[in-house]
Task: inverse folding
């Protein structure tokens, strides 16, 4: 996994949120982690398809900043529609903090 620049369209979406980006391999998935007040947020995206489970696992476990954090894939309510067209090729993982309800 190699560090990379955050693409301008992603930077425009996130604004001033602190973030870092990596490529799993040349031409592979883009991985972006965000440090938010509510916890860590990880996105894994591919230009042409949904990321595979092995790609998502690589992204989650190979980033040192995520060690010690519990991450979860959250299914939104049925009928939920995202505003971003690229969401069809992007998976989000959210930090689940212990003791938070």
Result:
């Amino acid at each position: 996994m190699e560090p990379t620049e955050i693409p301008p369209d992603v930077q425009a979406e996130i604004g001033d949120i602190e973030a870092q980006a990596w490529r799993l391999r040349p031409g592979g998935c883009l991985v972006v982690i965000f440090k938010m007040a509510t916890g860590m947020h990880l996105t894994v995206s591919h230009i042409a398809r949904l990321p595979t489970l092995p790609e998502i696992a690589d992204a989650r476990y190979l980033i040192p900043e995520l060690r010690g954090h519990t991450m979860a894939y959250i299914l939104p309510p049925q009928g939920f529609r995202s505003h971003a067209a690229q969401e069809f090729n992007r998976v989000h993982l959210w930090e689940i903090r212990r003791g938070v309800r």
Summary: The mean pLDDT is 85. The radius of gyration is 13 Å. The longest strand covers residues 30-36. Strands lie at 2-4, 18-23, 30-36, 39-45, 71-72, 90-95.
